[in-house]
Design brief:
The chain is an alpha/beta fold and 443 residues long. It has 15 helices and 17 strands. The longest helix is centred in the first third of the chain and has 20 residues, at 77-96. It is globular, with a radius of gyration of 23 Å. Bound molecules: 4'-deoxy-4'-aminopyridoxal-5'-phosphate (PMP). It holds the Pfam family Aminotran_5.
């Protein structure tokens, strides 16, 4: 059990923030509204979904107002323009993660991207086309995940194992919220076909050391899928350095629209996988007797795609690139250090996850002794502070640390020290409201 003892902060450290919070806030229309009877919106739930800057909203509106058509179809000017915008966004998103354009597949979100890979691996076993059977998963094979995964990177692998007779294995967690790699050498072994691991935990904030995991997977010839849902929006991520086979992430968590995500795959691997969804746009030749499929990425983009959303995600990437991902990361690190210090100085508050900023991102989960997280969330909401409460779609994690749920604050480019101060005041207000004063909490 992680029961990091709350201790007083040794003086509030507020290093200058790398991003101009006031200027950035002006770009987000939603941040001008008030909530709960005129209170300023303190949005600390970007980990669930991020707010959208005006440039992203404008890009979507402009698409519908001026260019709307189905891409890759139609012999008319609008179709040509829609195709250009869709493929142009693909090129910018590919560049954002240093990938080749044909390695970027658009999906609905991270969940959809992971399911696309999981179904491709089980479909591979029965594929008629021999070149699609290379990565087939079957009886006797093993899939490795970690105890830290979001349900999106756990349940699809459980289901893959049920479909194929493969076995699911996992790496556990240490008491301070990190991956326990002590049995990496046995958990990842010659039977392992794929290792699926998150780069940054949505609940603990932990940034995982992927290098030893990728190196071990390579030794045994296993594929590696990295869940980048919480890393790609917050730090520079480059697929060449990552060394994995797949990287998946969601547009809506990185200032982009809902309904669009990315499956990046190494071309050689994508090219050897059968499709999951089939239908229009992904076929080469269709006859009543059977069909052949396009090469990646089209093989994995069946039907008319989420075109306006892709264009919006392109604008989100432009916005993040203009800020600079190094600065985005440094900004969140400064806020996280300050918030950890302030929260852990409140008697009765326990941070679930790494207690300092070493290899850690801006997702802070905590419990308040004597108050259920849902009640903490309600008091914070009354003060205009939006946080998430619950198991955060990572049920095994809260179980591992022996808590029913946590309160989670997550930061992004528009977050400032004032937001953190309001949160800290809100937690103290919750303690007062429930009659759990700091003194009582530590008694
Ligand atoms: N993985 C992680 C680490 C996440 O935080 C999330 C979203 N909370 C997901 C996967 C799933 O993302 P989506 O719901 O956008 O598919």
């Amino acid at each position: 059990m992680t029961q990091t003892v709350s201790r007083p902060a040794a003086g509030a450290q507020k290093p200058p923030l790398p991003l101009d919070v006031e200027a950035i806030r002006a770009d987000f229309p939603i941040l001008t509204r008030t909530v709960r009877d005129g209170k300023r919106l303190v949005y600390l739930d970007s980990g669930a979904t991020s707010q959208k800057p005006r440039s992203v909203l404008d890009a979507e509106r402009d698409f519908y107002e001026n260019h709307n058509a189905a891409p890759h179809r139609g012999a008319h000017q609008l179709a040509e323009e829609a195709t250009g915008l869709y493929e142009g966004a693909r090129a910018r998103i590919a560049e954002f993660i240093s990938a080749a354009v044909e390695e970027v597949v658009f999906t609905r979100n991270t969940t959809d991207a992971i399911n696309t890979v999981a179904y491709a691996l089980s479909n591979a076993a029965t594929a008629k086309e021999p070149s699609f059977r290379r990565y087939a998963v079957g009886q006797g094979d093993e899939i490795v995940v970690t105890e830290m995964e979001h349900h999106a990177n756990l349940v699809p692998w459980q289901q893959l194992c049920e479909r194929t007779g493969a076995t699911l294995r996992w790496l556990g967690l240490t008491d301070d919220g990190r991956l326990d790699l002590s049995d990496l050498g046995t958990v990842v072994n010659e039977r392992t076909r794929l290792v699926a691991v998150t780069q940054q935990s949505n609940i603990l904030g932990t940034i995982n050391p992927l290098e030893p995991i990728v190196a071990r997977a390579r030794e045994v010839g296993a594929l590696v899928l990295v869940d980048g849902a919480q890393s790609v929006p917050h730090q520079p991520v480059d697929v060449a350095t990552l060394g994995a086979d797949f990287l998946v992430f969601s547009g809506h968590k990185m200032l982009g629209p809902t309904g669009v995500g990315v499956l990046w795959g190494r071309y050689e691997v994508l090219d050897a996988l059968p499709p999951f969804m089939t239908g229009g746009s992904m076929i080469e030749v269709v006859r009543m007797e059977g069909s052949t499929f396009m090469p990646p990425p089209q093989r994995f983009e069946a039907g008319v795609p989420m075109t306006a959303q892709v264009v919006g995600l392109g604008a989100a990437v432009d916005y993040l690139q203009a800020l600079g991902m190094d600065r985005v990361q440094a900004h969140e690190e400064a806020l996280t250090g300050y918030a950890l210090e302030q929260l852990q100085a409140i008697p009765g508050v326990t941070v679930i996850g790494p207690p300092d900023t070493v290899a850690r991102g801006g997702a802070i989960s905590f419990t308040v002794e004597g108050i259920h997280p849902h009640d903490v969330g309600q008091v914070l909401d009354d003060l205009g502070i939006a946080v998430r409460v619950g198991h955060h779609c990572a049920w095994p994690v809260v179980r591992r640390y022996g808590v029913p749920a946590t309160t989670r604050a997550t930061f992004y480019v528009h977050t400032g020290y004032d937001d953190v101060d309001t949160l800290v005041e809100g937690v103290r207000a919750a303690q007062r409201f429930f009659g759990v004063t700091p003194e009582e909490a530590t008694a």
